[in-house]
């Protein structure tokens, strides 16, 4: 195999494509690989094998981009109320808006493990999943947009950044098919006394007191004035999570 010459400024280097291919082949199982793309300094080397014959071709960044731009990407059928969907190297992520609804909530007493089941009217919620991580916030807007302000979910076991603490509750990787079961699993598990502070204006020390009050009053709506603002909107929070990955 002849050597390919690369000129960088006034320095000339030689790239031995045969050695490059052999080096890569020793690191991975190539039984099912028909082609490989090597990332070199300033360019890409495309290596393909057909009928025991290996060919090499240098590609420009623009050529590689054009090739991948033509690869179709289809989300499939998304669950109702999905307002954002994407996929990258960390997997699928979805953002859903859940309208105000009555919700069965089970609280567990940390002293004697006694369970108390409540029915509480919940405000509109934004539910996000990515990989094995899930987040939850509340909104006051009836129509959720990028600019809709987020509020802390009035529930235990949800961090102030919206991250859900599942504890030992099993949950699956986020996907369009599985996010619904994760939502159901979150509500079916008892809530303990973790992260109960700073979730209610009326009961800042323990949001469970607000849940018990609303259940006792058989309130038809959650009092939106009781929600505590995250001081960020939907776009700011979702985009910050994506950038951190």
Structure explained in plain terms:
This protein is an alpha+beta fold and 245 residues long. It has two domains: 4-69, no CATH class; 82-244, no CATH class. Helix content is 20%, strand content 35%. It has helices at 17-25, 61-69, 179-188, 208-217, 234-244, and strands at residues 4-8, 11-15, 35-40, 43-50, 53-59, 82-88, 91-98, 101-108, 115-122, 124-130, 133-139, 149-152, 229-233. It has a six-stranded antiparallel beta sheet. The two termini are 41 Å apart.
Which structural traits does this protein have?
245 residues, 2 domains, six-stranded antiparallel β-sheet, 20% helix, 35% strand, elongated
Uncertain stretches of 5 or more adjacent residues: 1-13
Instruction: Let me know the number of strands.
Output: 13
What's the helix-strand series? EEHEEEHEEEEEEEHHEH
Quickly give the structural class.
alpha+beta
How many helical stretches?
5
Strand content: 25-35%
Write down the overall mean pLDDT.
85
What's the number of domains? 2
Strand order of the largest sheet: 6-7-10-11-12-13
Helix proportion range = 10-25%
Integer-rounded radius of gyration:
26 Å
N-to-C span: 41 Å
- Sum up the overall morphology in one term: elongated
Largest sheet features: 6 strands, antiparallel
